[in-house]
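Quarterly update, task 2.4: 6-phosphogluconic acid-bound model.
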Amino acid sequence: MEREFRYYPGLVEISEHAAQYVVDLAQQKVMENGAFTMVLSGGNTPRLLYENLALTRFSDCLPWSKTHVFWGDERCVPKGDSQSNYAMARETLLLKVPLPRENIYRMPGEIEPPENAATRYEKMLRKFFSNAQSVAEDCFPSFDLILLGMGSDGHTASLFPGDPAVEERKQWVVSVSGLTAKPPIPRITLTLPIINQARYVLFLVTGEEKERVFNAIRRDPEEASRLYPSARVRAKERLIWYTNYRG
Ligand code: 6PG
């Protein structure tokens, strides 16, 4: 795995370059395999990236009909709730691009209890990948691209420091209490084994409050892995950090 750090002045430049990277990768994967699988991140940082992907200059170059969209995590809120990561992606991207509805694999965060939502999504993923690529029972499928953010505590997706979910080794999707999250509500999340099976992972991280954790991860990922789930993320081909830190 190659680990790469790309520094830009701010989120505008990061979102522009990341959008181009996503388009290029989508074209490459569709050419190679006939499909492109992309996992979206939640939070605020990726909003501008999603809005960029909906712009003609990017959207017209992205093979939407052969693109399949998933989520890395979701808050356990009613469907359509403005706090959901799906609602943010729908507003900034999904309503603006010709992505077939059947290619959108929304995390059903509204299902109670959260454990059932996680089980349901894992079943959705297993069904998708059983058609797309053979995945042995105890193995994990490979998404082409996973987009991730990072919190100031070093969490990513909804894998929070000290949460047992960070150590999950078998399930693809689990539920977490989210007590230390913002908002502090239950969530479901992909686990590290399935995240780390992705071919490409892009982190988009900006903001002074995250710089200390970012620098610790860049300086010594092994040591940082003890504290920060983001430090434990790997990719099969390339892991790229897009940040506005001085570097
Ligand atoms: C979520 C996200 C979460 C996010 C980080 C960073 O559901 O909140 O998936 O992991 O990526 O918390 O969030 P910001 O981009 O808003 O700083």
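Highlight for this quarter: The chain has a mean pLDDT of 96.
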